[in-house]
Amino acid sequence: MSTSSLTPPTPGEASSMKQPTFVTTHWSVVLSARDQASPRSDEALEKLCRSYWYPLYAYARWQGRSPHDAEDLTQDFFARLLGKNYLKSVEPERGRFRTFLLVAFKRFLADERDRAGAKKRGGGTIAVCFDTAVAEGF
Q: Full-prediction pTM beyond 0.70?
């Protein structure tokens, strides 16, 4: 794959792009990454992150996110995925890994959108109650 094909699209291009393609998953890599006691766990985690970082980034861009926001969201998603050990719930019998990853990423993006919306509506601020009858009496 050439370096130019890894260049993120502009906002106008993102809306006309096809949905990004995810690579075929090798379950042996996923299971090794999930098993933190395995000596190959770190290597497997790195391989998964490298394989799926760009498709998730491209998905965020395809959804209309700016390059900077898509990078930050993708990085934050992987930090949460690894920090909360979401891989422990992944089983080959339950379906494709890329489906699991995309669904988890969509939920993450929705949560981040909701969180940003809450901040815009005054989330995180302290509400001050006042009694208008008392205020009018002065």
A: no
